[in-house]
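Practice problem: predict the structure.
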Amino acid sequence: MENTNAQQAQFIKMTQTPIPRLIAGLAVPTIISMLVTSIYNMADTFFVSQLGTSAAGAVGIVFSIMAIIQAVGFTLGMGAGATSSRLLGQRQNARANAVASTAFFTALAFGLLLTIFGLLFIDGLMRLLGATGTILPYARDYARYILLGAPVMACSFVLNNVLRAQGRATLAMVGIGLGGVLNIGLDPFFIYTLNLGISGAAIATLISQCVSFGILFSFYLRGKSIIKISARAIARDAGTYGLILKTGMPSFCRQGLASMSTVALNVNAAVYGDAAVAAMSVVGRIFMFILSAMIGFGQGFQPVVGYNYGAKEYGRVRQAFWFTFKVGMVLLGVMAVAGFFVAPQAMALFRRDDMEVIAIGAFAMQAQCLVLPLQPLIVCCNMTFQSVGKSWQATFLAAARQGIFFLPLIVLLPQFMGLTGVQLTQPFADVLSFGVAAVLAVRFFKELKVLEGDVGASHGAHALQSR
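Answer:
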């Protein structure tokens, strides 16, 4: 009875609370989670960069592995989360439990496979991801511990996303945030105090991921989550797996193609030496931090869209979209201006004694700042389509930025523009992705208007019958 009352209270909160207050309340803890995650990723890059340019390049190489883990974790987590929020909006709680449990144990199985095969073929894997001869020893030492943590990392992404999808963003923040803060503290201790070098940074990341997993899983064990995770609830029908994968496919494209694009970027940058690989790696981490605020705000907006779309409150879906878009424009507009003017100083924080790294990275950072205000529409469209079950539109848009446009451009532009082509690939891909998002947004809001009309007509018919 108590659980039923909690479910009813959460339904009322998600479908009746004023949109600005609701999204802000859900987004603040999510933004904090994203920022902390980005900060500890940057902390890894910062501390490792002090060991040398080749060590800094190794972080960029191993990031491709982390992107693969994230791709699977987010695919299953966002697939289960978006589906669960719609099911909760439709009051199908048992079905939501099955979806979440299936995603969790699938992530566990994948993580174990990646650990086994990754460690068996670690040298070949590092070379495949773009490691040069001088970067390889650092990349191997860093990747070994990241691979050991693959099962925990993948499962944590599922637990985190399912918590957020049911409107429990604060709990998700606590789990991810505490692990991130621990990582930042452990980095210098393992790298310098224990003199473990780049392996120390990876060990710190592994420990922090285990702590985050333990905290997140404890919320499910202690009944803090509406949705329950249980081996007995694992689905035995192919339809549930297909639904999770279909709904999570945009995340797979976004994260999976991020891994592929990072590999392609590293391979093309390596032509110009370790300084180019290190510079582009640092720029990637800086923009992960900048975009984390927008993505965090968007993730706070996602369960609002999922709940209200499932409850046929289409006016609230529209209101939530435009509120998030406007806030994102202000946020990223300010960050774009600031980032453009402090780009050289930002790069110098990581490799102060390597002027080549600073010069290459500053130009790439300034170019990306110029197109940063295009991101709010791309993010809002992607997350909206995923939350309302428009998987193919969301998948295509997610694939556009890091795949459909980026991968051909990273091959073609350096042929004509040399290193400048490497630096400008992401800004060009962002401009093209914005055009796709604008077209899809217009179509979506036309469809939403039709759905609102249908709901209004249905309510009118019921009112007449009741007379």
